[in-house]
Amino acid sequence: MSTFSESCGENLCPEEENTSSANEGRDLTVTIGATVPTGFEPTAAEEVRQKIGADARISKDRGRIYFQIATDKLALVHHLKSVDNLFVIVQEFENYEFKDSKEDVMSDFQQLAPQLPWSDALEVWRMNNSLKKRRGRRRGGNSSKPKPGKGEDAPVPATEEGDAADLIPAEKGQSDAPQAEEGEGDQAGNLEKEAAEDEANKTLKFRVTCNRAGDKHCFTSNDAARDFGGAVQEFFQWKADMTKFDVEVLLNIHYSEVVVGIALTEESLHRRNITHFGPTTLRSTLAYGMLSLCNPQVSDVIIDPMCGTGAIPVEGSIEWQHSFFIAGDNNDMAVSRTVNNVNHIQKRSQDAGSAPLSVDTVQWDLCHLPMRTSSVDIIVTDMPFGKRMGSRKKNWDLYPSCLREMARVCRPGTGKAVLLTQDKKCFSKAISRMGGLWRRVHTVWVNVGGLVAGVYVLKRTGSVYGTTPEDVRPPQEAPNSGKDEQ
Ligand SMILES: C[S@@+](CC[C@H](N)C(=O)[O-])C[C@H]1O[C@@H](n2cnc3c(N)ncnc32)[C@H](O)[C@@H]1O
């Protein structure tokens, strides 16, 4: 283990760490890591290019992208729609050489902690905290979002082979300094100063979260988190706290790649726009990815005919404000959840002085849509998988009927559909019989709650509805009629 003075090279000495708030405002260039829904890494990279002007690198560890920013762009990073969690990189090792015995690997990890270049990443972490506090005050109080309910997304400090995008860091406890209300003038300024001083003087609480994937490691993620964490604690003299932590240090190990980072988000950003959750609410980030695949244009009519809680139209109407969205479902509870979610975002946009969002909610049966033929530009929906929602047996009738009705309302030649399902066999069979109406463009494979699902991108053929053999509704098909076909 290096001595205190040895480790102060380009690293941050514990003393410096307490006083470096004086450096705030210094422009740094750092690498940001983001977890994104698996399969949608290219969509996320494109969003980063468009909104931040940075070229993102897609990690070989699926579900992650990395990009460099100057710190004046830090606030923009939090507005990305395709990212679940954000972190700033302390150091990356592309080809880390793990020793053969667990003891040796752990000893290397212990020696690594004091040698890492922590200072820039910690400064970005601090800037990020100030941003969050400012944003919290603008919103009129506490910046923290509602905590996830019991049984949802519990804190997972160490994961093996987990889906990166599904790792949702725990909420922090009461670590944020008290928030001043807007309009309190000097008093607010004093409070801010006091809070900053308190922050600088207090002993930080931290935890290390290790994500590990790879079958050749002789240690577990818990081993790595514990031993690396011990060395971090010794170096910074921080206090370990698994639940009420200020700093979350990330140790991501993917085969021979090791990345050490500091988390910039407390809870996954995928929850940002939904207040009324249902049994199968889609992550906002996945909804954004599906919508991006069809590249919505000004004045496009976009429907989600099986909207559930409305994650897709809610996300779409916020991002593509010049398109028009219709959310529909046949279930009254789903419709009322969507109405509540839409009202919530309408209120938020009204409070921000923005124009109302173009989104309507309807109760309907997708197999008999109350819409004119060829009146819709884009259909984006998340179909019942037949597991938590509906049944596999019912899908054999539902999928062909809904593909036919979607083809009726969708504009021939230009219309598109992006459909998510995990019932791949049933979907493949149904779409193979609709060649005259739909052309399959490509499929993105995604992980939805641990299940591999397909996001099918379809293009409406130029055939006028009513002129192809596929328009005819066949007599009821037997549920197992597709056994011979994948
Ligand atoms: C997988 S869920 C959609 C979840 C949704 N994306 C969300 O974020 O909550 C599928 C939805 O399809 C609806 N559904 C099933 N059959 C339908 C039909 N014939 N017409 C309209 N909606 C239907 C169900 O009520 C359910 O809400």
Automatic annotation (TrEMBL):
Gene Ontology BP annotations: methylation; tRNA processing
Keyword Transferase: yes
Pfam families noted in UniProt: THUMP, UPF0020
Region named Disordered: 1-24, 129-164, 467-486
One GO MF term attached to the UniProt entry: RNA methyltransferase activity
Organism superkingdom: Eukaryota
Biased composition regions of type Basic residues, renumbered to the chain: 131-140
InterPro entries for the chain: RlmKL-like_Mtase, SAM-dependent_MTases_sf, THUMP_dom
Record keywords, A-Z: Methyltransferase, RNA-binding, Transferase, tRNA processing
Gene3D superfamilies xref list: 3.30.2130.30, Vaccinia Virus protein VP39
Residues of the THUMP domain: 162-264
Gene Ontology terms: cellular component: cytoplasm; tRNA methyltransferase complex
Protein localization: Cytoplasm
Homology family: Belongs to the methyltransferase superfamily.
Protein name, per record: THUMP domain-containing protein
Species of provenance: Coilia grayii (Gray's grenadier anchovy)
Lineage of the organism: Eukaryota, Metazoa, Chordata, Craniata, Vertebrata
